[in-house]
Amino acid sequence: MTPFLEIRNIRKEYGPVVAVHDVTLNVGRGEFMTFLGPSGSGKSTTLYILAGFDQPTRGDILLEGKTLLETPSHRRNIGMVFQRYTLFPHLSVGENIAFPLKVRGWQKADITARVRKMLSLVRLDGFEDRKPARMSGGQQQRVALARALAYDPPVLLMDEPLSALDKKLREEIQFEIRRIHQQTEVTILYVTHDQEEALRLSDRISVFSKGVIDQIGTGEQLYSNPSTRFVAEFIGDSDFIPCEVVTSRHGKADISVGRDLIVPDVPLHGVGAERSAAQLMLRPERISLSRQKREQALAATVEDITFLGNNIHVATRLAGDTPVSVRVPFGSEVMSGIERGMPVWLCFEAGAAHVFAS
Description:
This protein is of the alpha+beta class. It folds into 2 domains: 5-232, P-loop containing nucleotide triphosphate hydrolases (Rossmann fold, 3-Layer(aba) Sandwich), CATH 3.40.50; 237-357, CATH 2.40.50.140. 23% of the residues lie in helices and 36% in strands. It is built from 8 helices and 20 strands. It has helices at residues 43-51, 93-103, 108-121, 137-149, 167-184, 195-201, 219-224, 229-234, and strands at residues 5-14, 17-27, 32-36, 58-63, 66-67, 79-81, 155-159, 187-192, 204-209, 212-217, 239-249, 252-257, 261-269, 277-282, 288-290, 298-307, 311-318, 323-329, 343-347, 354-357. The strands form 4 sheets. Strands 6-7-8-3-9-10 form a 6-stranded mixed sheet, sandwiched between helices. Strands 11-12-13-20-14 form a 5-stranded mixed barrel. Strands 15-19-16-17-18 form a 5-stranded antiparallel sheet, with no helix packed on it. β4 and β5 form a beta hairpin. α2 packs across α3, α2 runs parallel beside α4 (137-149) and α3 packs across α4 (137-149). The longest helix has 18 residues, at 167-184. It is elongated, with a radius of gyration of 25 Å. The relative contact order is 0.11.
């Protein structure tokens, strides 16, 4: 079966600078795909090539098996939502939404009906005569979304549309975007540097780093099974502890941590030579805390304790001066009597850890 949207070996060079290195990606019809990564990772450049605002140095983009590169941006029929809304300030909300329909030659009665439908979709019924300046940032972004969806585009591109909003409003609009996607089933490609936003919204996430895609998967797959250290660090919180590979086989390794601790069958990524230096990755919520000495545990000292509402963050430090964070559910009895400066033992299961090259 031909993929709905194909990005084939896209590369973009700006003189000696390579912004995108041979990115390849298939997107299914109706999928919500997020491009996640830090600034300069190539995610927005890839989106702008899709939109037709920029041309690739090489590669191709196909929509339903047909190349888009020969079609100018205004004829690709792709919707676009930007960070700064880009609404026309002199037009009303209804006129803003109607604008792309007028450009496409829609009849007046059809435009009126479509504007009302879009206002209902974004829950702004009755706002058609209001000017953008009299609306909140969240309302303006919903208008921009309604305008981008008004002509029923096959693909909607969104470039960090919520980064200008405060946290509470951002979460509200995230919920609205997810609802609208489920209701319209439009294919969405969404750019963000916010990992929590990507996890909330996406069917799948493409993690960009230095112009390449490090890994593609669902949020759960990326969090539970990161294929690179970059993905492990960028998705969720993580600690890295120096270790040594003792033996390796079939994608797993027995490792030594410190002087005495041997941990068998830890998932292994990119290393494998016996007695090679490596880094053990642990998630703070997958570490259990004990006041009693344990055989298969890391000895640590409590440095700080912070209440975070539904959990407690315990900052510890190993004997080798490596910091390790632990998240304990609020109300857990294990925190009874634990104070700064106290020795504790950190326990974890091998299946919840990962080993990466140093």
